[in-house]
Amino acid sequence: MRKKQKRSKNSIFPLPIDQLLETIQSKFEGNDDLKISKHEHNGKKLVLFYIEYQADSDMLQNYLLRPILHIKKDWTNDELINHIPLTSPNKETELEKILEGLIVGHVFIYVEGESEAVSYSIVKKETRSLEKAETESLVLGPKISFTESLKTNLNIIRWRIKSTDLVVEELKVGKTVPAGVRLVYMKSIANEVDVNTMRQRIEDLDIDEVEDSIVLKQYLEDSQNNLFPQFDSTELPDRFTYGLTKGKIGVLMENSPTGIVAPATLFSYLESTEDLYMRWQAGSFLRILRFMSMFFSVLVTPAYVAVVTYQYGIIPTQLLISLGQSRAAVPFPPLIEALILEFLIELLREAGARLPTKVGQTMGIVGGIVIGQAAVEAGLTSNILIIVIAMSALASFTTPSYLLGTTIRLIRFPMIVLAGIFGLYGIIFGICFLIIHLLNLKSLGRPYLVPLYPLQLKDFNKVFFRTPFNHLNKRARSYRPKDLIRFSKQEAEKRKDIDE
Amino acid sequence: MDISPKIRNNLKVRPLYILFMIFGLQVGVGIMGAPRFIFMESMQDSWISILIAWAAMVIVIYVMFQILKQYPNADIFGIQVDLFGKWVGSILGTIYILFFLASLLSVLLTYVNVIQLFLYPTFPPIIIGSSVLLLAHYCVIGGVRSVVGAAFLFSVLPLWLLFLLYDPITRMDWYHFLPVFQSSIPELLKGAKSTTYTLTGFEILFVFYPFLTKKNKVLKPALFGVTATTILLLIFMIISIGYFSPDELKKDDWATLTLFKSVSYPFIERLDYIVVVGWMMVILPNLVILLWASSYGLKRLYRIKQKSSLHVTFVVLIVLVGFIKENHIIYKITDYVSQVSFWLIFVYPLILLPIVLIKKKWLSKKKKGSDAK
Amino acid sequence: MNYRMILVFILSSLFLTSCLSSQEIERLGVINTRGIDITDQGEIELSLVIFQFEAQSQNFTKVVSGKGSTIKGAVVNAGLETNFILAPGKIQLDLFGKETAEKGILPYLDTAKRDANIPDTMLLAVSNTPAKDMINIQEQNISMNIGQFLHDLIQENGTGQKFPNVSLQDFITTFYDDGQDPLLPIIDLQDNKPFIAGIGVFKEDKLVGELPNGDLLYINLMEGNIKDRWLEISLSMEPFKEFLKNEPKDEEELHLAFNIIKGDSKSKLKEKKSLKYETEVMMDVNLFEISAEIPLDNEEVRKKLEEEVNKKIQSDYERIFSTLQELNADPFDYGVLYRIKKKDGKLTTEEWSEIYPDIKVDFKIKTNIIRHGITN
Fold first, then answer.
1. The complex's ipTM?
2. Taking the mean position of all CA atoms in its chain, how far away is CA B260?
3. A302 and A252 fall within a common domain
4. Are B135 and A314 within 8 A, CB to CB?
5. Do C26 and A321 touch (CB under 8 A)?
6. For chain B, which domains are there?
7. What are the subcellular locations of this protein (chain A) (predicted)?
């Protein structure tokens, strides 16, 4: 896709070798890792320069230096290219390009008197091997996750989608620290408007550096003032390609094990590829369970606070008695009680995430059981609240997307405060506020609550629950794919008689 | 000003949503007390009154549609200016806007009143008022698509409350309906008229029409919208008649809410609390649509920036809600709104249609005349 | 204006002015039962069973009482006896002393309807003793708090006989309905233990008489569908003597216990002029117990048995109805049937009071024995 190198006006060649080396060395002043080796043959001078650890030294020895030194004729660029057993030589003329190339592990060869320097990419990059996904773990389905290597990631995706439809566009972000970004989508499915929007947004970014794709995601999102993530991010290649085949657009970035998928809706965060691997009944059940647990997690603690503080009438008499007895010993108002306990749970969670896995588990047990038990006995909280909060914490873990999970954790606190001040009224206020907030949200310019609003009734069986694959012959309209039809329905639905 | 405002295509919505705009705006605080007012007039035959009101609405909507059809993409503000000239048209348009604002105020006050009555007698009205208005304001800031979305979601979400009516339904006494057809025709008509306050809201068709795609398909969803409201009102009316004894219903200001008072389940009791606070979702479409319609109207008539008029209305309404406390003033405001809405919503379109038709005919004749020359 | 500015402004004002009076349950005395009596001076005397939760004690019920000329006033007065805020949101039972009930209970229900806080599901009952005595009985006898006990007693007592329509809402509706009168349970003390002593018959809101508690089933049958209830009946042995398998003993009565699978009733106004009513009661029953052995597989015997049961129930109904006519109270809604046949559909209480003693009701009972258990 790159344009062919044209002879540029600001070419620095031809140039005497000593002068060239001086220029380059001045740019790398203070760095000792620029390696230079000069050679002479038949009166022709040649220089080879590279950065020590970026280039593979074995390859350098065997495939570059040795063939060059074995050339009998005069050294020219063409002669070199003919003799070196490596593909894709580049010819550079600009100093800027040479410097850029050096950094990413190119080896440059300049024969004195030539108007171009020849470069070979013999990058040596340290990567970790493929591993099991940690943050988004699946019970069924592929286990590997993306790694920090962009090439590996693209390799995984190409293997998953073996189609010429898959387009990988190369883009760059960052001025002082440039980083490669790839825009990935299915040519025949993805909506062009969305692709253009995304490309435009990446190209328009005017920043010095981007730390990671999750940071890039925040730059690209429609609004940064919102609570909710607007682009999906995942470390699972199957979730990534699942998005692509539905007509979404993926973004990958160098050195980041996270892929971005857009546009997203609130409900797409609750979809897991696992739903597809399950039988449809179980898949639907789990998806509905996740929806309910999201509401449950947000609402249950505030409901406790509101009811205990204001609307005691809602509690049935028997429950009221046990609630009242457990509350009687607690010296704080319910609001403070709930906030303390929620804070405790968040502490445990955060500590568990930071600590090494083995210690983390112990922490969970110590925190959950010992502290909880002690808090009740010391009369700091009521035991019913412990149950309530533990349930809400549990429910918040069911979201397949970690980012949405964090949002849900965060929303709880204002909701609890509202419930503590206004009771049930506060909760309803909070819910209405969230709904309107979600209505105002956009992801890549698309409504965030689709298919609920704008209403797409035909998408309900793809988003809120799952029907057998035979029925799912169309892609979800909500993402506006170019091509709606997945397969012809007639064949799948052909009625068969008994014993046929 | 332009008679037909130019609306960007990405702001337009499917005709389906006029259903929810109408339904969302009609169902509000009115329905909380409606059974009593209707029952006072036409007793156990109140359901007939509601059917009469439905027929009237269908006619008026048809007439409104005929008026709008004469123009490519116009709203009431443009049509009035076109018919009566700039001055008179603007004044009539202003009346519409004032009516929207007055309905908004009466909805707000009534809701505040109910919250205080059922849940928090000491809750300062200004806080209830401002918190609800804040939500509406936040929604209108999001633009017309958010407004439609709110009308849609908030009119669908509270429908689950209907399931709670299972309990009152089992306690109904069908003898309360007998003997039928006892009320005289004037009584029935009076009963129908007393639904006015509850059923206002379909006038939004006049304002929202330019925002709809596929104009030829608008009539059906609009009719479905009023029909849905009628069915809802009918459900509440019938259950109320069966559930309460006549003398009791005549005394109960908030019959619809009282219906929920005896609903209780083993794990949750006093569902009327939840219904009363949950009613916020029912009135939000009211507030959102009215707030949007009035600020949009001001923009159309006087070219005031929608944002600034929105902020000003917001502040003025909060102040008013803070000051008006007495029950009887609230009832009076509601009463005025209902009086005005009868003339403005039900009668005015019937007058407007012949004028529009005559003018169109005259224009086409003139055109023909000029063509002939 | 910046939107966030408004938000911050309003939120802060919300916090500043948040002067809602909170009702944290540990600070409340949640009223569970009210006993209402009238003192000789004409004041209202309230006895309240309240729940209050204290860290130090396991016993959470307490009885407080207060006097006043209004109910609310009496509650405030009673509040002086406790350090908890008395909260009316969960009242389960209003218990009226018999004397109070005879004078009419409507004035005391006004606040219950007016105050949105008081639940409509609250039950009403009459106490044969002054309500105060009933509320104050010792808890040892009943092993749970008195309010809860009475509530459960009325709602579903041991025999599975539910009292029809005794919640506040039901009472009010029946009261306001023309041509209907309410019934309420009467509770009495026996060996310091409360039990349901009878069925209080009300004329409007005044207690005018009483039916024995054994008639509860018949009343339930008149109210509508019933299922899975027990019917105990004693018939004269005479008609069955010839069928007895064993030697006839000198027992005079045949005792039977049925389980009613399905029971329903229907009343009609047959002739409006002569005020002739017809009430049909239909029951599908299972026989569960019989005191003498008779061959039930015999068609003739079964017919006979059904016939005798019908006769017995009919006579019971006639007895109940004549009592009601004497009291001039109409809990079986015959007035409603009259009203809906009238031209304008209106019937005042006075009018009906004059007509009611003259109406004639023809009770038709249809019992259908479906099974007679495993044995014959």
1. 0.94
2. 23
3. no
4. no
5. no
6. 9-360 (1.20.1740.10)
7. Cell membrane; Membrane
